[in-house]
């Protein structure tokens, strides 16, 4: 009969192995441009295959992502997250955090008038109802 510890071990074995493979692939694909120059990759297809394999591994890890992250026992403070709040003020803290973001220091970000507004105006004029 499986104990709770054995069950957790068996449940997380495949996702933990996929996590390990993700780390290995991310490290090898991370500087793929440098590796092309050195001849480590003989074709761009190898990089494409590595990225496809990463997507497959992500799909295997996704259902168990929270237990895997919890297994590292990082605090929400360390992760920069307010999602694990115990006082129930999640949305208030998310709102406050958004206002602390440097992009929200001004009401209208730099470049809006020059680049974004003309595009939005053009789309409104060409939109059909």
UniProtKB/TrEMBL annotation:
Keywords linked to the UniProt accession: Oxidoreductase
Claim: Transit peptide is one of the keywords in the record: no
Record's keyword annotation contains Metal-binding: no
InterPro entries membership: Acyl-CoA_oxidase (IPR012258), Acyl-CoA_oxidase_C (IPR002655), AcylCo_DH-like_C (IPR036250)
Sequence ranges assigned to domain Acyl-CoA oxidase C-terminal in this UniProt record: 40-121
Superkingdom of the source species: Eukaryota
The family this protein is said to belong to: Belongs to the acyl-CoA oxidase family.
Protein name: Acyl-CoA oxidase C-terminal domain-containing protein
